[in-house]
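Weekly sync notes, structure subgroup
Attendees: PM, AL, DS (notes)

Item 1: joint prediction request from the bench team. They want all two components modeled as one assembly rather than separately. Inputs as received:
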Amino acid sequence: MTITLSLTPTGSHPASWRLSPLPPLANARDLRDIAKTAERIGIDAILLGVPGATASDLLQFDPLPMLGALIAATQSIGLCASWSIDFSEPYHVARVFATLDHLSHGRTGWMPLLSTMPRLRPRIGRDGSPDDPTSYCAKAAEFVDITRKLWDSWQDAAWAMDKPSGMFVNPDKVAPIDYHGTYFAVRGPLNVPRPPQGRPVLLMSDPTEPTLRTFVAETADVVLVRDATDASAFKVREVRVIVDLLVVLGETEATAQARAEALDAMAPSDLPRFVGTPAQLADRIAALKGVCGGVNLLPAVLPFDLDLLAGALPPARKATTMREHFGLRRPASQYERVPA
Amino acid sequence: MKKQLHLGLFIYPAGHHIAGWRHPAIDPRGIASVEYYTSAAKAAERGKFDLFFVGDMLAARERDGRLIREGGLNNIDSISICSAISAVTECLGLVATLSTTYNEPFSIAERFASLDHLTGGRAGWNIITTANDDAAWNFGAKTHMEKALRYERAKEFVDICTALWDSWDSDALVADRASGMLVDPARIHPIDHAGRFFRVQGASELPRPPQGWPVLVQAGGSPAGIDFAAQVAETIFAAQVKLDEAVAFRAKVAGRMPIYGRDPATLRILPGLSPILGSTEAEARRKEAELDELILPAVGVWMLSEQMSYRLYETPLDALFPSAEIRATGQAFTPRAVSLLDRADREGLTVRACANIVAKSRSHGTYVGTPEGLADHMQLWLEAGGSDGFNIMPAYFPDELDVFVDEVVPILRRRGLFRTAYDGVMLRDHLNLPRQGRIG
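Output from the run, pasted for the record:
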């Protein structure tokens, strides 16, 4: 089982900021402390900017500088950030995540957000009405395809760095991608060598809408579902499915229940939840084995629920890249010529 | 107190000398790892530098679709690097470069606000407009946007960002745990912008950045760039290599600032400076020669061709640099290109010599000599009004950076020209720049 953690400033329950000792506006020191604790107790990866996982829609930092700020504070934990495809361009995404993957020696993942929340759409010059799923699905498919081609545009052996001959890069092993799609035209190649993981892990949320589900099943390396029974919708290829779980813990079941009630009295939460003791959570995680590939834990209140989690987790797997944390193999560049 | 120097460290993969990666002291395999950047950042903070500067390029180093074999690496993503080194530093300013031509203002405003909040007010934004066609090809365009239009877009872009940073009153984040009021909507003021390039309605998602606005940095030196600098730049990363040119450049920008209601005293100019240092003049010259021997002619000719937008691949290396033909193309040259054209005429340089100049420092200023001599040079420029400091561009990392920090900085301190400790945490504190924006 792969265990991930949604990292937010105060926790994932909408009332968490009222009970957490941490400030609702994140600061780097607190985020690093949480990340270090997560790494120490055996969490495989941290997810930043997962929609719906934070106490408030406001006060959301851009996840990219957050991810960057955690690299030097951790050694082996995976680090994944969301980035909307509406707000950016494939070249930027490929360049930024290739950079982060190099900096972190292969510990990164990208969670593309397919459409923009209606609330934010006027910020980028559009009206508040939602996109048509079929069209943003087609746009997302192009976006991801280009991003992967850019990561592949430097073959693994391209970065020669041969001092005696002065060959920094082998030009025979780097090529433009010359992509001309409906939504994007990108020549390439990328100006960053191939990421250590080949391609950073692609993590996507289950969109539940049927057309989009097919697209996500065909595209993602890891899918985040809200309900474990949905895992079967993604049993194709090498996709790993992890299920969201808001955790409200207590030393006893009764104290956990009391905490959940106190939180709900301040603000309701519709996240799928677990309320109980750490030992009961361990049983719940064990029971999910076979149903899905892992669990994304959303601590109700930080640092409280994270500190209690330690005893509930299965032994950490020995992994140094994000792909290893998910048991995913490293893909070869699509431009690599297979010897005849 | 004497006028004080401001120092930036301009990081580059391997070093600013194009052949730096071939130097025997360098392990080029590490140049994209976090350790490479954190060790340079720690050295810069040990030297009490004002800021750490990361550039940005949106295309590979290539010629006709083929990568340059000897070409080294551009900077990798600047925001990623700046946020990564923030974890190992306390006060060092973090200047990241992002293009206004290939981005969209809301997300860039939020990214810099996030960096400024996460680092307690250490962020700066080097605003560039990206002028190369090969970058345009990576963003769906056939050619790059024409210069006047690029700067018009840049101004509108920056205006939107500053309006978004100003959209929260300083006390809008209430976070009253007892009442449950997180923010006070009455203290958040949505913007409603409709311009030639952008339509943006709404407020920032984040409270006002600690510095009000991240420090606005700029590097263009053309007439359009100077006018843009006079409107927005608080710090300029300049390219003049001669003192009289630098003094004239400052006068041009400072002369235009009052037109836009700005005080020229709130401008810092930091020219690039690439030192090669030795304990004697002769030792420094020997180091320079060793490095220059590592330059393969093909890479210098490529860099020169790129800078001049003129193909020199067929011109014999020992022919005179064809500056008249290049000028005859009538293009709008960058200040660095103009500076090199003038120098080639003045000194009768060959193609090989010009290629070497570009390859060594990308035509920024160089200084080859002793630490004492470099301190003299910096003091002269500071006192003559040519600059407020320098953006230091070590030929290769980490050795040449360490030499600067350990041998040049102490001399500058003894002369009373440079700080011995940081006075504050924010980049604005180091640069002695006022907090910007609407105060409320």
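Discussion: Residues 133-152 of chain A form the longest helix (20 residues).
Action: AL to compare against the crosslinking data before next sync.
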